[in-house]
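ERR on first pass: missing label on line 2. Operator R.T. fixed the label and resubmitted. Corrected input:
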Amino acid sequence: MGPALNILGIESSCDETSAAVVRNGLTVLSNVTATSLKEHEKYGGIIPEIASRRQLEVIYGIVQAALNKARVKLSSIFAVAFTDRPGLIGSLLVGASFARALGFAIRKPLIQVDHLHAHLYANFLSTKKTPCVKHNARGFPRLPAIGLVVSGGHTSLFHVTDFHHFQLLGRTLDDAAGEAFDKVSRILGFGYPGGPAIDRVAGSVKETSLRFPAADLAGSFDFSFSGLKTAILYYRQKHNDLGPKQTAEIAFSFQNSIVTVLIKKAIAACQKKNVKTLLIGGGVAANSLLRRRLAIESKKNDIRLFIPEPELCLDNAAMIAGYGYHLVFKRPPRTPGTGKNS
Ligand code: KG4
Ligand code: ZN
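pass 2 clean. output:
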């Protein structure tokens, strides 16, 4: 292998401020994230102005912490990668301005990274210091692949040919999957962020006769979750005396519907494109039912499934630094030890 190239990544597209150092596009040396989530809790969603103000305050310390944790000096950083889209404009501006100023000061190149593509790239990353062929227990994903990004702002299904070419097959027509989790959680009184709360509460339920189906949009790879959310809102308004057991059952049924439609479309996309690799990314990929059921369904369909470890599903700068390396060197990361490209 050639010399170790360390890339500093900066991610600030939503409420979080994250910095990371990643070696050779694969090994996460550090990944430090601060979030202003607590401050948004009482509003039931992210307030962009609060997010960007906090980011401005903490970004310097977060970048310094990432460099310290990685034991890497600024002088040995090869390039600075940052999220340039999509995201909250004020938040993106904080990360982009910081990255540009830093790159200028240390005379290092800048790499602009698409946040959604980086979520899928997280499947190449390892937090272990010395990555081996089986660094994520399954080796590296082989392309082409189908990529499903499920986050607070997006639900998008891509055909990924080589990580430079992403064909959008479908996306949500209204709410994103994570947004639906957040809104339903608020309706049910579980607070914000809703994903982890619903995941936890639904886990206590085994079965229910309650059904809240998600729109199927048969024959399309698009998604729609706002009808599901509204059905739950109306049900809740009609039954305002629900106890914790029934509320948990609603959460269970909701989670089940959303997971079912995500898996159905992801597997159908693999079949349509005759692809054997499925990559998942984004905060909702941390959902325990989604992870469990995806493992079963992909095995049944002879598909190799990759989901990042939960820390790398949620917004993080490691995926930005890792994908930044990949963009500069215009090739997939080499599989250590085998000499093969992934
Ligand atoms: O990717 P991410 O960190 O930020 C965006 O790019 O949007 O995703 C955040 C979303 C939130 O909507 C949150 O509720 C959801 O991911 N989420 C989950 C879980 N953990 C986070 N959704 C379902 N189950 C979870 N365990
Ligand atoms: Zn994200």
